[in-house]
Amino acid sequence: MSTTQGVNTMHGTGSKLSWAAADSWTMTRRELAHWARRPVQVVVGLVFPVMMLLMFSYLIGGGQGVEGDFKEYLVPGMLTMTMAFGLEATMLSVTQDLGKGVVDRFRSMPMASGAVLVGRSVADMLQSTVGLTMMIAVGYAIGWRRHEGLASFLGAVGLLLLLRFAMLWIGIHLAMVAGKPELVQAVQILVWPVSFLSNAIASPESMPSWLGAIVEWNPMSATATAVRGLFGNPGAVGDSWAATHAELLAVAWPVVLITVFFPLAVKRFRDLSR
């Protein structure tokens, strides 16, 4: 390849990347504009996890097998559960666009093929970051505290958002498989048991041994345990491999889920018009 051809190829690649980035940002702004048009839905999405935190902290109680202040065990667990609950909102938004034919119209326009998915994912992560910030603030208000430095705090937040990013692509793929907002309820039925089948609220040590073993291998349990450690919060940690390698699993589980569901979502999106 000549020097001129190489330069032209680089310019062509740069132009394609710039085009894709511009289209993705346009789709991101579209998703953010929906916040102003659907304030009730946004507020409910932000307030619901807060209500859950307050209920488990003051009304329902818990902390079986947990030593020390239950709030310091509960808050990291609820932060983890909040990242999972966002799956439903992602699915609802995608299925609504599919049902109204919005996705088909975008696919017929001269834009980068992945801009719709990128815009959806960026907007979703921004909303998740806002929700996570709000939950941390409420945690401080009810007496939760972190006891490690800023680096550990940022590491914990990074693990939480990594889990959310994995759940995001699961939601996008399942939404395109379901196709209709009505079918999101079927996923909701599954999200709740999986979320509560973790150590977010109660320690596996307080459960029957067979159930505790399942709980310890739940991806959410790995993130919750790792986040508690980074925050310096107390947590009943067993001696199993999953419990003692929680930080490794907190990275490995989301990476595996992203590796599986990201290409599935992209392929499903490409197949929609066929």
Short key terms for the protein model shown above:
globular, 11 helices, 274 residues, mainly alpha, disordered N terminus
Distance between the termini: 37 Å
Largest sheet: none
> Strand pairing plus helix content: what structural class?
mainly alpha
The topology string of helices and strands comes to HHHHHHHHHHH
Helix content: over 70%
Strand content is under 5%
* SS elements, strand count: 0
What's the number of helices? 11
- What is the gyration radius calculated from CA atoms? 21 Å
Low-pLDDT ranges: 1-11
- Can you give the mean pLDDT? 80
The shape is globular
Protein architecture, described:
The structure is a single chain. The chain is mainly alpha-helical and 274 residues long. The chain has eleven helices and no strands. Helix 2 (39-60) runs antiparallel to helix 3 and helix 6 packs parallel to helix 11. The longest helix is centred in the N-terminal third of the chain and has 35 residues, at 3-37. The radius of gyration is 21 Å and the shape is globular. It starts with a helix and ends with a helix.
What's the layout of helices and strands?
Blueprint: H1 3-37, H2 39-60, H3 70-99, H4 102-107, H5 115-141, H6 150-178, H7 184-196, H8 209-216, H9 219-231, H10 241-244, H11 246-271
Helix pairs in contact: 1-5, 2-3, 2-5, 3-5, 3-6, 3-7, 3-9, 5-6, 6-9, 6-11, 9-11
